[in-house]
Amino acid sequence: MAVRATVSRFPIDADAQEASGLPWGLTVTPFAAKDENGIGPAYGSNGHLLPRCENCYAYFNTYCELDQWAWNCSLCGTLNGLPSDAIARYSNPQSIAEMSSSFIDLELPLDASEEEMTQARPVYVAAIDISSSEEFLELTKSALLAALEALSPGSLFGLATFSHKIGLYDVQGPIPVVKNVFIPPDAESSLPLELEDAMPLLQFLAPVKTCKDRIAAALETLRPITSWERSSGAAQGLDSVLMGGRGFGTAMEALFNYLGSEFGNTFALARVFAFLSGPPDYGRGQLDTSRYGEQYASKRVDADRALLPEQTPFYKDIATIAVQSGVCVDVFAVTNEYTDLASLKFLSIESGGSLFLYSSTDDSTLPQDMFRMLNRPYAFNCVLRLRTSTEFKPLHSFGHFFADPQYENLQHIICCDSYATYAYDFEFADNTGFSRHSGEQPVVQIAFQYSVVVPPEGLPNSEMSSSSRGKHTLQRRLRIRTMNFGTAKNINEIYDSVDHEVVLSLLVHKVILVSLEDGVREGRALLHDWLVILTTQYNDAFQLVQYKNGNKSMSSQIDITFSQCPQLEPLPRLVFALLRNPLLRFHEEGVHPDYRIYLQCLFSVLEPSSLHCGIYPALMSYSTPDKQAYPRHSLSRAALITSGSPIFFLDAYSTLIVFYSSTADSSLPFPPPQDCLLRKTINKVKQERSITPKLMFIRGGQDDASAFENYLIEEQDVDGSGFASAMGFVSFLDDISQSVAEHMK
């Protein structure tokens, strides 16, 4: 469980927090195997015996004062009696996880019987759009064949297709058999037949161990639905079949209900992989894609605001059914046409799944992403709870979860991998703030209760992977991290303790929320105004603006680059880059609304360092493929020219580019050899990513270098087309400086 705060020394009270101009909060990656310093938890058992505070329900931890019979809660100060069994256990503290570490992971007892525990088989269902092209189906087959290699033999796998009908495959016999259920074309009608009646669920879900080859054979039989088939469907009385044929909504709703009948019996978690080649245009949940082509400018309507909200609550509603059925949905959209991901995204983000968007089948990393996703550890049926000491409290929570309807600050996560990150911001409970004189420090406790599936012979706790071999057993665990933070005596101490990457994370979450509610313009305005306020507060704090005759002299130099505080220096560049990012670029600049939604979903789950790469890519240089020259450059042409280095490596999170300058010595090997330092760096970066980055090699002066040059944003106008101009980062700083001067008048 990695936890990073915006400031490691908390503001002393609300006035100090406001005066700093900084967001106050933290990010947490609950299922990360280690903390932010690379240290793992202390493992133990009997999590249900861990004492809890009678007042605030916090868990006993190493920061609590303990005597023979009682303990003081480190969060609220309440004195709690110790039960007799705890007194006996704590008499030998060396063997007790919660006595040795503030980061613990304890096994919990299961309510289920032993027989039910061994029935916790992982279930995977592929739902494939066959209202598509041959290329799309070939890519999907490749992805699913990769997935089969990552699945453990004890898993169950179901294959379904959708178009104007739902196809269910039985692969447990000698040849694949498909049963079809036709979808009513209108948006109100339900299926004429329950899927369970068409094919019993346990006939549909095939054991991977014995049916792997048959599943692969069934995949090879998939063909796109033809116009002839649609016409024959129309001849049977199914009107309007020729007009559409992608009954995605009806298919998803029916599959969730189908799987829900065995939730808690055959499986503890089912994952549905939905492969989509275009917008749903048939049956329930069909979407009107004509809104993308409307002329919003002539209607005086903000296109960015009009295209970001969902147009129907249907997918949010069936995401609730998925959650109740124990189903996590991963949506893989392979399309360059408008598909309205703004409506579809709820299927994945509310069920704990992922949303992937690929603009074409040609260079898609779908098979690699699929294998990578299934080959890493994941937890399910998770509950996340953040508690704080009494002086402050969580204000907002951000991430892909759903809030508990009854309890505050309690989040449910259906499926959580080791990369998934969530964020919180804080506010003071009252005007008092933290004590300036007592030795008590602010405390945060994060509790994460989760389930994993492990083989009965037992895996090391650090290796609970979906690729475990053998039979499966359900295990419930409780992971707790308790942290105390210092308080800052003055604003300088706050600024000196800033983690700019976590500040960026909270800003991105807030900007996404404002964009969804009020449009992209408002999101941009919020970001601009925040930087102006921060710069003003910083200049005030360091008394950098001189006074003349009782008035602040605007002729004095405003420090716009935070030269007195290295921790704040990266922030103007990060804000500039965020304003240049497609997340906040305008519709008229050619930003596809589906791509914007995809970025919102991606950026909302990235841990801070990865998000930093996605917003402001890392650019480093090499003098040879085996020798690094500089570890970090600004994203400008001037930086490239002045460095004099022949080779550059750019890491933009989802894209990696190796660029050889046009002046590079022809004797330098191109592309870099496999055993060189640069290749090792690239391979390490690829291995650590949650998605498969696209790798490009470009030779300046010979190849088209635009893919690389587009990332050199510092000479690009923050509001313009992105072409190099006299505008850019320097001009942006001038604009901020003028705004600060106005603000200080």
From TrEMBL:
<protein>
    <recommendedName>
        <fullName>Sec23/sec24 transport family protein</fullName>
    </recommendedName>
</protein>
<dbReference type="Pfam" id="PF04810">
    <property type="entry name" value="zf-Sec23_Sec24"/>
</dbReference>
<dbReference type="InterPro" id="IPR006895">
    <property type="entry name" value="Znf_Sec23_Sec24"/>
</dbReference>
<feature type="domain" description="Sec23/Sec24 trunk">
    <location>
        <begin position="121"/>
        <end position="373"/>
    </location>
</feature>
<dbReference type="InterPro" id="IPR050550">
    <property type="entry name" value="SEC23_SEC24_subfamily"/>
</dbReference>
<dbReference type="InterPro" id="IPR006896">
    <property type="entry name" value="Sec23/24_trunk_dom"/>
</dbReference>
<feature type="domain" description="Sec23/Sec24 helical">
    <location>
        <begin position="499"/>
        <end position="611"/>
    </location>
</feature>
<keyword id="KW-0653">Protein transport</keyword>
<feature type="domain" description="Zinc finger Sec23/Sec24-type">
    <location>
        <begin position="51"/>
        <end position="84"/>
    </location>
</feature>
<comment type="similarity">
    <text>Belongs to the SEC23/SEC24 family. SEC24 subfamily.</text>
</comment>
<dbReference type="InterPro" id="IPR036175">
    <property type="entry name" value="Sec23/24_helical_dom_sf"/>
</dbReference>
<dbReference type="GO" id="GO:0030127">
    <property type="term" value="C:COPII vesicle coat"/>
</dbReference>
<dbReference type="Pfam" id="PF04815">
    <property type="entry name" value="Sec23_helical"/>
</dbReference>
<dbReference type="Pfam" id="PF04811">
    <property type="entry name" value="Sec23_trunk"/>
</dbReference>
<dbReference type="InterPro" id="IPR036465">
    <property type="entry name" value="vWFA_dom_sf"/>
</dbReference>
<dbReference type="GO" id="GO:0006886">
    <property type="term" value="P:intracellular protein transport"/>
</dbReference>
<dbReference type="GO" id="GO:0000149">
    <property type="term" value="F:SNARE binding"/>
</dbReference>
<dbReference type="GO" id="GO:0008270">
    <property type="term" value="F:zinc ion binding"/>
</dbReference>
<dbReference type="InterPro" id="IPR006900">
    <property type="entry name" value="Sec23/24_helical_dom"/>
</dbReference>
<dbReference type="GO" id="GO:0070971">
    <property type="term" value="C:endoplasmic reticulum exit site"/>
</dbReference>
<keyword id="KW-0813">Transport</keyword>
<dbReference type="InterPro" id="IPR036174">
    <property type="entry name" value="Znf_Sec23_Sec24_sf"/>
</dbReference>
<dbReference type="GO" id="GO:0090110">
    <property type="term" value="P:COPII-coated vesicle cargo loading"/>
</dbReference>
